[in-house]
Amino acid sequence: MKYLMPFVLINTIFFFQYCKSTEYLPDNYPKAQIVFGSGGGFAGTYNYYYLLKDGSLFKNSSTDSTFQKVKKLEKAKVSQIFKNIELFDLKNYSFNDPGNMNYFIELKDKEGTHQIQWGGNNREVDQNVKTIYQILNNFLK
């Protein structure tokens, strides 16, 4: 009986150690994610932000490809942004008008990748895209 308590304690520690969830990075995340950011200009530097469907928000840049975790967002907010993207049918919206300074939203899932890029002076991007981009940038605050 005196060995039962240490045995239970050790087994409990091992059980909880192996039950913790896996922390994914954007380059190996198996579910949907949104990549957004901006760049260009004189230096040509790009900043990338990665919103994973689990709420993790990462960043890197064209000068530092290391993923840095920015924060973990509430699942309700993340779920809503993914629903809005579906509602606005952005996967089927085609727009590629780069300029000196570029802004982009990239949608990644198991079906592939779809990018929307704007910044040029030739055409105006859809207002829904600008709204989604603004909401995504507000997540960074």
Q: How would you explain this protein's 3D organization?
A:
Helix content is 28%, strand content 30%. By secondary structure, the chain is α+β, with helices and mostly antiparallel strands. It has one domain: 2-Layer Sandwich (Mago nashi protein). It has a 6-stranded antiparallel sheet, with helices on one face. It is globular and about 45 Å long.
Q: Between the first and last Cα atoms, what is the distance in angstroms?
A: 55 Å
**Strand numbers in spatial order across the main sheet:** 4-3-2-1-5-6
What do we call the CATH topology? Answer: Mago nashi protein
Topology as a string of helices (H) and strands (E):
HEEEEHEEH
Structural class: alpha+beta
Class in CATH? Alpha Beta
Helix content estimate: 25-40%
Overall pLDDT metric: 90
Report the major sheet: 6 strands, antiparallel
Question: Globular, elongated, flat, extended or rod-shaped: what is the shape?
Answer: globular
Rg, Cα atoms, Å: 20 Å
CATH architecture: 2-Layer Sandwich
Indicate how many domains the architecture comprises.
1
Number of H/I helices: 3
Strand content: 25-35%
In a nutshell, what does this entry contain?
Helix content is 28%, strand content 30%. The chain contains three helices and six strands.
